[in-house]
Specification:
about 325 residues, alpha/beta
Length: about 325
């Protein structure tokens, strides 16, 4: 097992406990975080990355998340102690472009295995409005000019510039599956002693994501409108995958305040396109969404970007929350 051997003193353990890392699962009693050498120690930037690490790593990994449950990932600022503790990890799994402080900390750390999920699939530009696309199918270019993801990766490799691209790739099960495959390969290379298990776990996760994709395809097939309104532009990839149009109150940054002109535009869109619901999310303020809904006589509901799981989440993990999202979308879009 090519995991760096290390010993952590009692003083160091106290420091680790004070870091604010959110430990998802101590997958073994001899966890790496406890100073033993029996597990592969992975630091993940936020929940969707930690979920991948846990599902793929299984009993062989100890996963910690830099973002606490209930914390808005976009707002995360890494502490000096967290930065120092990154040196103790065997691998870091993050999504460049979502959390600048994480990007900087991991970029400056000496971790041997740095896995950037944004390099494992093609990113696209999305803003307050995204969608209108046909289903991507196998990833080949469709009538709207969306290029084949594998071709993008082959042409640009790991050097492509994804600054400014929409980072919310995990909300498209097909893209998330591609990321899972890349993470699985990285784990196999970094910890070859358990490569067979990582390969098996990756295949199982990909199959589960393919089943989720099919649920969305069939569940949204017969609908009365394609348009849905959200509090911030997190669902652009999901919209494109299933031929929908997301109209967001704010852009990719959930803290951005909409202009008066944007609010008026959304009111007109809601009327013209038969919108019934304004969606808000659990980790940011619902004030603007509820104000818009009240002014236009619309209902409100939750569409969760699955950036973290809390007691208020409609499910205990990624799959449960995504299925709850599907139910909410079916209702809002008049799917039968």
């Amino acid at each position: 097992m090519n995991v760096r051997r290390r010993h952590i003193s009692t003083v160091a353990l106290t420091a680790v406990a004070a870091l604010g890392f959110g430990t998802l699962t101590a997958c073994s009693s001899d966890s790496a975080a406890a100073g033993d050498t029996g597990t592969f120690d992975v630091v993940a930037s936020f929940y969707p990355m930690a979920f991948l690490a846990e599902r793929i790593g299984g009993e062989h990994v100890h996963v910690t998340s830099l973002t606490q449950p209930g914390q808005e990932p976009h707002d995360l600022e890494i502490s000096a102690r967290q930065t120092a503790q990154l040196e103790e990890a065997d691998a870091a799994l993050y999504l460049k472009g979502l959390q600048p402080s994480v990007d900087e900390a991991i970029g400056q750390s000496p971790i041997a295995t740095k896995i950037d999920a944004a390099e494992l699939t093609a990113l696209e530009e999305h803003g307050t409005e995204a969608g209108h696309g046909e289903e991507h199918g196998d990833g080949h270019e469709d009538e709207h000019g969306h290029e084949d993801e594998q071709a993008h990766e082959d042409e640009h490799g790991h050097d492509h510039d994804h600054e400014g691209g929409d980072p919310h790739i995990w909300l498209d099960p097909v893209k998330y599956a591609k990321v899972a495959e890349g993470v699985g390969k990285a784990f196999q290379k970094a910890d070859p002693d358990h490569a067979a298990d990582y390969r098996k776990n990756t295949a199982t996760l990909v199959k589960d994501l393919e089943a989720l994709d099919e649920k969305f395809r069939t569940g949204l097939a017969n609908r009365t409108t394609d348009v849905f309104v959200t509090s911030h532009a997190a669902f652009g990839y999901l919209a494109e995958r299933y031929g929908l149009t997301e109209e967001a109150i704010s852009g990719l940054d959930p803290d951005t305040e909409p202009s008066g002109a944007r609010v008026k535009e959304l009111q007109k869109i809601a009327k013209d396109d038969g919108v019934t619901t304004v969606f808000y999310e659990t980790l940011v303020s619902d004030k603007t969404a509820k104000t818009l809904a009240g002014d236009t006589g619309l209902k409100t509901d939750v569409l969760d970007p699955v950036e973290g799981i809390t007691d208020h989440s409609r499910g205990e993990d990624y799959f449960q929350v995504m299925e709850a999202n599907l139910t909410a979308l079916r209702t809002a879009l008049g799917a039968r």
